[in-house]
Amino acid sequence: MTQNIPAHGSNVARKDINDLYKWKIDDLYATLDAWQAAAEDFQNALKDFAALQGKLNTKAGLLEALQKQSALSEEISKIYAYARLQLDTDNADPQFQALSGRAESLLAEFNNAVSFVEPEILALPHDFIQGFIDEADFAEFKFYLSNLLRLAPHVLPQEQEALLSQASLAASAPAAIFRSLVSADMQFPPITDGDGNPATVSEGNYLLNMTSPDRTLRQNSFRTLMSTYHNYRNTLANTLTGQCRVSRFYATAHKYNNTLEASLAEDNIPTELYHGLIKTVHDNLQPLHEYMALKKSALGFDELHPYDIYMPLSTAGESFACTFDEACARVTEALAPLGSDYIDTLKHAFASRWIDIYENKGKRSGAYSWGIYGVHPYVLLNYQPRYNSISTIAHEMGHAMHSYLANKEQTYVNSDYSIFCAEVASTTNEILLLEHTLAHATDEQKIYLINQFLEAVRTTVYRQVQFAEFELFTHGEIDAGRSLQAETLENYWLESNKTYYGPALTVDKELASEWSRIPHFYTPFYVYKYATGYSAATSFAASILCGKPGAVDKYLGFLKAGGSDYSLNILKNAGVDLTTPQPVAVTLQKFAEKVKELKALLKK
Ligand SMILES: [Zn+2]
């Protein structure tokens, strides 16, 4: 905590932060003029691309269109990133705003210019494409084309697709109404904290209030937030009914049996995987029940309520405080099992300004990694001296290394990994850091770290699967021709919480309204990916740490594969087969072990 931390924070102007701590934007384009020139060339190339329309019905015409589309896509990604990365570092900067405006409109022009390609390919006879898909010239487009052909039976003739897309704006109403109700119109009454002082609760601070040691504040936040949602129960049951009906309409229009099938088809995931995931979690609810019982006794409460669950059992997170350089050194040590090539690149990333480290005025909050093909990933952080921030470095560098290796090994078209796989590399790194830190921690720090892990599994696996199961219920009601009644959903939700959390939790009646505040239910059958991603990561980390022969190479193979195949195949080739219960079961067994460890530590 010395002189090598620059002044930073929400009041420090970006220009006052030393360039050493900022990412090197010049790696994308050496100067603003170079970017302007690239943007101009790009616009001209888009005009030329239009001439290819109607010419995809020959082998040469198709190949040319695919190659040019790929090159244009690569270029616009760079042009766009140059503007948006800078805007994220200072949202108030008028020059960055102008660049971003230009980049947004170029991106829209690109999407418009290439929009004829896929419909034109899909209108071609499939055996025409099958005739040359295995030829060397088409090698880099083989996966892209076969995926397109896989989905072809679900694409309607152009006129019908056009009609459906005309309806899409109206069809987005349920989600739009939900968003405007909960984020604009809904008013949460003022509350008080444990000292009787005025306090507030909103979606913006709810989770923060839930982690407060002040139990009155937690209880008041919970009751006020939930009962405000309760006041809108019929409206929210109707927006959800509307969303489920819209999804079912598009699913059946595209010749799927139901929304589940249509949603999973995008990633080529069999519906059995979804049902299997829920079953495996149900078979392993006992450890969650034990965790709740442990939490109840550790907190010394007669009753454990939903507003007590998020409360941490230790505040030792700050005891890991260190400078950014020290944090990078810890992450590097923790990731050493991934081998010297991985570590060398990681060190290179730290030394070569891939990262924008500290907070400044106008900078976007949170953290992300943005992989850019042909350049290198850029990582945005807002580093603070505490454990979570060190873990964020491990997490974001996981994404960055995934992008870096995939971009290095794959052609542009095959480089981008799917959302299904996206959180695997980042979470694997988080777990490696946690295990490494645990091995060198004091008992108090161990309580903190294990609690972090248990909360991650509870919220990413158990809770998301609980949501996934709820979606099966809601969409099932719609499939059966029924509408969703607030009372039915409330009763379902209370029962579901009893099943998941077990006898140690007192399920307050206010909890019945929780289903109505989950925005993800407006993106059907999405949340299960959090649970599969986390489980895949836990499996990888377990194999790597126990020194299973070949585990590291297989894991690196997963990173290098990018988006060159279906997600399930890529993971399976790397040793994680999500079509079996194993990865999820391994994760929940590890959860059970950590509950026991925590129990022993708390007894000391
Ligand atoms: Zn992430």
Summarize the structure.
The chain has 604 residues and is mostly helical. The chain has helices at residues 32-49, 59-89, 94-113, 117-122, 126-130, 142-151, 158-171, 173-185, 206-210, 215-230, 233-253, 259-265, 271-283, 286-299, 324-334, 340-351, 387-409, 419-438, 443-479, 486-501, 528-545, 551-561, 567-573, 582-603, and strands at 191-192, 198-199, 355-356, 368-370, 378-380.
Describe this structure in words.
It is a single chain. 36% of the residues are buried. This protein is an all-alpha fold. It is globular and about 75 Å long. Helices cover 61% and strands 2% of the residues. It has helices at 32-49, 59-89, 94-113, 117-122, 126-130, 142-151, 158-171, 173-185, 206-210, 215-230, 233-253, 259-265, 271-283, 286-299, 324-334, 340-351, 387-409, 419-438, 443-479, 486-501, 528-545, 551-561, 567-573, 582-603, and strands at 191-192, 198-199, 355-356, 368-370, 378-380. The protein has a domain at 31-155: Butyryl-CoA Dehydrogenase, subunit A, domain 3. A 3-stranded mixed sheet has the order 3-5-4, sandwiched between helices. A two-stranded antiparallel sheet has the order 1-2. It contains 24 helices and 5 strands. The structure holds zinc ion. Zinc ion (ZN) binds next to helix 17 and helix 18.
Task: Pick out its properties.
single chain; mainly alpha; Butyryl-CoA Dehydrogenase, subunit A, domain 3; 3-stranded mixed β-sheet; two-stranded antiparallel sheet; 5 strands; globular; binds zinc ion
